[in-house]
Design the sequence.
DNA sequence: GATGAATGAGGCTTCATTCAT
DNA sequence: AATGAATGAAGCCTCATTCAT
C-alpha cells in the first residue's frame, strides 16, 4: 500500500487486454523466428525467451506449454492466410490475385524463414492431431478461397479446360505448396529476389496453361 | 556353389560382409519407420533400437551418431529416387512414366509414412547442411530425370506450349512435391487407395494441360 | 582338418608359455602407452587393443579385467624399480648410483610418458587399495635401496650432517618424486634433454648439500 | 535488524549476488571432496550434486560442464596458494615461513584430501591443456614466492652454499611436492598428526642443510 | 587362441516446467 | 506481472565385459 493507492483506484480502468496481447505477440514473434531457424523441437523455451527478451517463466503466463505456443502460431498462420485472401480478393484480375497468393511466403521476413516454418508445421501436423486440425483448416480455407476466386472470374470460366474450380484450385495449391517446400533449400548462391522470381515463374507457367492469355487484360469483377 | 568350391572346400563361402549390411539395413528400416512416425528429433535412439529389436549400443557400431543415421537414410532416399527413374524410363509412354513417378511415395510402406519422412527430410535440410546437400542432389536428379524423359518424348515436344523441358519438369515436380506435402495430412476418413487416386488425379489434370490428348495413345519410344 | 595336420603333431611341443608372455607383454606395453597418454580411466579397453593391434576380447584372455591390467603394470613398475637398484648398485660411486636413480624416469620412452603414468599410479593408489599395496611396496623398496647404498658408502658416512640414512633416503626420494611430479608439466618449449638436465640439476644441488665434494673421486666400495 | 531498517524498511537489504557465489562455492566444495575421494573421472556429476545436496541440473547453471568445474577448482587452488604466500610472508623468520608452506596441504580438510586432489590435478594437467595452464601458473607463483622469501632473508643469504635463490626454491618445492605426492599413500596406521610430523621432518632436514643453524634465532627481516 | 558383434548400465548434458520471491 | 533458480526425467553416447564362432 503506497500513496498511489489512494489516487488510482485499485483496478485500472484502461485497456487491460492490451499488454496481454502485446506480450503474446512478442512471444509469438520470437517463437516464429526461433522455430523457423531451428525447428519446433530443437527450439528450447529458453531460446524463445531470450529472443523475446523476457524470462522463461513469463512465457508460461501466456501459454500453458510449448505445444500451445506451436498451436497459437498455427492459428496465427491460419489468420495470415485469411488476410491474404482478403488482399487477393481485392486484386483487379485473377492473375493479380494469384500473384498475391504465390508471393506471400516470400515476403514477411526472408523467403526461407516462413517456408521453413510452414514445412515444420506440416511435419508437426502429421504427428500432432491438434496442429493437424488447424493445418487442415488452413488447407481447406485456401482451397475454398481460390475456388471462389475462380468461380467468380470470367476468364477462368472461359478456359477451364473442363476442370472443376475445385480441381483447378487443388492444382494451384499443389504447385504453390510444392514450390514452397522446395524453396527451403534455396541455393545459397541465389539472392532472395532471384528465388522469388524463379518461384513466381513456375506459377506463371501454370497460369499460362490454365487461363487464356487474352483474358489477362480483363478485370475479373 | 561355383567351381572354386571344389578346389577350396575347407573354407565356407562365408558371407562376411553380409551381416554388416543386414544390420545396417535393419537399423535403417527401423529408423525410417520411427522417423516417419515421430520425426527425427522426437525419435530417440532407444526408439530405433527397440523397433529394430537390438540394443542401443549396437547402433553405434554401424553409425557414428544419430545424424549419420539420418544422413544414411537421406542417401538411401536418393538411391530410391534413382531406381524410380530407372523404372520410369522403362515405361511405354510419357504418361505411364509420370504415373510411376507420381505414385512412388504411396507405395513403399503406407502412403503417409514416406511422405512424412520426406517432409521431415526437407525440414532438416533447411537447417542441416549435410542433409541439405543430399536433398539438393535428390532434387537435381529428379529435375534432370524428368527433363530427360520429356526431351525424348514426341508427345511432349508437340505440346510444349512454348515451355522449355526444364520448366515443364519444374512444374511437374512442384505439383509432385506439393501433393506429397499435402498428403501428410491425409484425412483419416479416406482410405489409402482413395488418397492415392485423389493425388493421381491432380497429376493427371496437370498432364492434361501439358500434353495433347491425342498423343496419349502413342508410345514415346 | 587339413593336410598339415598329418605333418605337424596336434600339439606343438615347443615353448608353450612363451607366446603367453609375449601377448601379455604386448598388451602391457600398449596399455602403458595409453595410460600414460590418457590416464587409466580415460583409456578404454578398445584403446589398448587397438594400440596392441589385437582384438578387445583377447585382452580378457590374459587379464581378468581392466583393473588387473593396471595392477599388472603397477607390478611391472615395481620390477623396473628393482632392476634400477641392481644397476645403481653396480655404479662406482654413490653419486653415480644416484644419477642412475634420478634419470630413470627420463629414459624409457619420453620424459613425460613414464612420469604421467607414475603420477596416475599414485592417484590410483590413493583410491584403490590393491594398487596402493603395490605402490607402497615400491616406495619401501626405493627407500630401503637408497638407505642401503648410503649405509655402505664411506663418503656419505663422512658427511651425514647428523642425519640417519633413512632420513637422507627419504629426502632424496622426496626430491626425486617431486621432480617427477613437476615434470609432467614440462614446458612444451623445452627439449627432452633440456628437461632432463634441469631435473638432474635439482638432484645434483641436493647431493652437493648432502655430500662432501672431496669424496666425489672416491669409489664407495 | 539494524538501524537501516528504520529508514528503508520496505525493501529488504537483499543479497542478490550472494546466493550465486554461495551456490558456486557449495558446488565447488562438494566437487573438491568428490574429486579427492574418487578422482576427476570417476566422479560423476550426480556424485557432486548429491554431495552438494542439489539436483544435477543445477550444476549446469553455474558451470558449463564438468571440465569447467575442474578448471574452477584449479583456479581456486591457485588462489589458495597465493593466500598461502601472503600468510607465509608475514611469518617472522624464513623457517617459520617455510613451515607455513609445507604444512598447507595438511590442514584444509584432512591430510590426504588435498593431496589426492592436487595429484589428480597434475595428472589432469598432463593431458588437459587448460588445466595445465593453471597448474603451470601455480608452479610459477610458488617458485617466485619462495625465491622472493629467500632473497630478502639474511640467514638464507649467508648460507646459500653457492646456490641461486631460484635453485634453492626449486629444490624446496621438489621436496614439498614429492612429500605431498608420497602422502597420498599415508599408511593407514598413522594418525594425521603423525603424518604431518613425518612430512615436516623431511622439510626440516632440508632446511638444516640449506641454512645455518645459527641463523634460526634471527628474524629474517 | 582369436575375433568382434552384442549388451546394457551409466555418464554427461539439456530442457520443459514449476515456484518462491 | 516478472524473474530465474531449481528440479529431474530423458536423451545421446561410451564402454567394460561376454560369448558365439
Sequence:
Amino acid at each position: 500500500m503506497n500513496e498511489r493507492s489512494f489516487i488510482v483506484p485499485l483496478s485500472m480502468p484502461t485497456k487491460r487486454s492490451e499488454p496481454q496481447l502485446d506480450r503474446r505477440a512478442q512471444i509469438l514473434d520470437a517463437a516464429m523466428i526461433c522455430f523457423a531457424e531451428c525447428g519446433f523441437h530443437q527450439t528450447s523455451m529458453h531460446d524463445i525467451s531470450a529472443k523475446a527478451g523476457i524470462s522463461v517463466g513469463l512465457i508460461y503466463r501466456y501459454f500453458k506449454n510449448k505445444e500451445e505456443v506451436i498451436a497459437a502460431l498455427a492459428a496465427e498462420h491460419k489468420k495470415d492466410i485469411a488476410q491474404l485472401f482478403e488482399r487477393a480478393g481485392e486484386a483487379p484480375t485473377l492473375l493479380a490475385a494469384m500473384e498475391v497468393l504465390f508471393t506471400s511466403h516470400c515476403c514477411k521476413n526472408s523467403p526461407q524463414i516462413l517456408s521453413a516454418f510452414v514445412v515444420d508445421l506440416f511435419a508437426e501436423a502429421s504427428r500432432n492431431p491438434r496442429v493437424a486440425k488447424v493445418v487442415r483448416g488452413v488447407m481447406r480455407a485456401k482451397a475454398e478461397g481460390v475456388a471462389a476466386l475462380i468461380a467468380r472470374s470470367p476468364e477462368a470460366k472461359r478456359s477451364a479446360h473442363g476442370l472443376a474450380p475445385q480441381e483447378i484450385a487443388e492444382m494451384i495449391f499443389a504447385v504453390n505448396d510444392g514450390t514452397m517446400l522446395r524453396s527451403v533449400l534455396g541455393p545459397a548462391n541465389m539472392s532472395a529476389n532471384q528465388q522469388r522470381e524463379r518461384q513466381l515463374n513456375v506459377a506463371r507457367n501454370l497460369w499460362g496453361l490454365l487461363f487464356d492469355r487474352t483474358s489477362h487484360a480483363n478485370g475479373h469483377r
User: Anything to note?
Assistant: The radius of gyration of chain B is 21 Å. Chain B has two domains: 15-64, 65-216. Chain B has a mean pLDDT of 82. Residues 19, 23, 54-58, 61 of chain B lie near DNA strand E (CB under 10 Å from a C1').
